[in-house]
């Protein structure tokens, strides 16, 4: 039976992640995941695709922050003073993330200065607005779910064994942080998650929607921020679907609840016809 091995949130889109032992879910997915985002001066979202230096920013959260109505985020970056973005927003602004355009909270000039210095590019930090609704696509599932600033779906699932199989094919192994999962499981066959239709933890159920299409961010070493062709080159040789390189599974959640490290998971396979398309 698969077991939860580790849990992660990424409070600021495309910056470093935060490991958790217990992860509550609200209506938009893992609490505090991608609730903040850096945007350029036109309001368009920034990621490591355009600027790898986002990867030098480490958000910090305490376990208590997941239970508070307003989490006090702290950020650090090598060579810079630690900084706490304000809890109170400065103004409303229009932002764009993939096909979505809508209002978000701008966190002010002092905040913009710190992050601009950290990534070497003029930018502003925004926070997802509670009164905004952003829905996931129903192209691959009839179950629509809310999401904050994630690319498309609220949860990314990956197994330890799938990464181990990839690393077996690489000259130099890569760590799990190249792939930015929320939910890492163990005690499964490599790529078993491709066949799963539903995953049930004791307190929460997830529907497995579609494989995650991987991009150049997977080639960026999250310690040095340098990049090469791997692991994308090797993945392209054996993990292609409809012209895209895939690794891990996007999921949507049913309601609210909490997933904990060590939780045993009940998994239910996709219908045969659907599984054959994965």
Q: Which oligomerization state do the chains in this entry correspond to?
A: single chain
Helix content: 10-25%
Question: Proportion of β residues?
Answer: 25-35%
- Total strand segments: 18
Largest sheet: 9 strands, mixed
Q: Average pLDDT, to the nearest integer?
A: 94
Distance between the termini: 22 Å
Order of helices and strands: EEEEEEEEEHEEHEEEHEEEEH
| Tally of individual helices | 4
Query: What structural class do helix, strand and pairing data support?
Result: mainly beta
Shape: globular
Gyration radius, rounded: 18 Å
Notes on the structure:
- The protein is mainly β.
- It has helices at residues 109-119, 160-168, 232-238, 272-275; strands at residues 3-9, 18-20, 22-26, 29-30, 36-39, 58-60, 74-76, 91-97, 100-106, 124-128, 155-159, 183-186, 196-201, 204-213, 240-241, 244-254, 257-260, 266-269.
- Strands 1, 2, 11, 12, 13, 14, 15, 16 and 18 form a 9-stranded mixed β-sheet that branches. A 4-stranded antiparallel β-sheet has the order 5-10-9-8.
- Strand 15 (240-241) and strand 16 form a beta hairpin.
- The radius of gyration is 18 Å and the shape is globular.
- The two termini are 22 Å apart.
- The model has no long low-confidence stretch (mean pLDDT 94).
Summarize the structure in short.
The chain is mainly β.
Attribute tags:
nine-stranded mixed β-sheet; globular; 278 residues
Question: Helices, strands, pairings?
Answer:
Blueprint (H helix, E strand, L loop, with lengths): L2 E7 L8 E3 L1 E5 L2 E2 L5 E4 L18 E3 L13 E3 L14 E7 L2 E7 L2 H11 L4 E5 L26 E5 H9 L14 E4 L9 E6 L2 E10 L18 H7 L1 E2 L2 E11 L2 E4 L5 E4 L2 H4 L3
């Amino acid at each position: 039976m698969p077991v939860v091995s580790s849990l992660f949130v990424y409070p600021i889109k495309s910056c470093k992640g935060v490991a958790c032992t217990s992860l509550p879910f609200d209506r938009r997915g893992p609490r505090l995941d991608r609730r903040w985002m850096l945007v350029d001066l036109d309001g368009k979202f920034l990621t490591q695709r355009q600027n790898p230096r986002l990867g030098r920013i480490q958000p910090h959260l305490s376990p208590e922050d997941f239970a508070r109505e307003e989490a006090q985020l702290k950020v650090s970056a090598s060579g810079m003073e630690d900084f706490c973005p304000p809890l109170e927003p400065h103004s409303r602004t229009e932002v764009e993330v993939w096909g979505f355009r809508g209002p978000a909270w701008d966190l002010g000039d002092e905040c913009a200065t710190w992050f601009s210095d950290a990534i070497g590019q003029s930018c502003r930090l925004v926070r997802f607005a509670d009164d905004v609704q952003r829905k996931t696509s129903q192209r691959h599932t009839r179950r629509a779910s809310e999401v904050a600033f994630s690319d498309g779906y609220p949860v990314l699932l990956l197994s330890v064994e799938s990464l181990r199989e990839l690393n077996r094919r690489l000259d130099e192994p890569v760590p799990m942080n190249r792939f930015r999962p929320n939910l890492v499981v163990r005690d499964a066959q490599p790529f078993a998650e491709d066949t799963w239709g539903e995953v049930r933890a004791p307190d929460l159920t997830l529907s497995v929607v579609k494989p995650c299409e991987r991009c150049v961010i997977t080639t960026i070493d999250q310690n040095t921020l340098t990049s090469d062709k791997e692991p994308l080159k090797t993945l392209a040789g054996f993990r292609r679907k409809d012209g895209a390189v895939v690794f891990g599974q996007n999921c949507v959640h049913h309601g609210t609840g909490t997933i904990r490290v060590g939780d045993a998971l009940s998994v239910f396979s996709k219908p045969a016809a659907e599984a054959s398309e994965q």
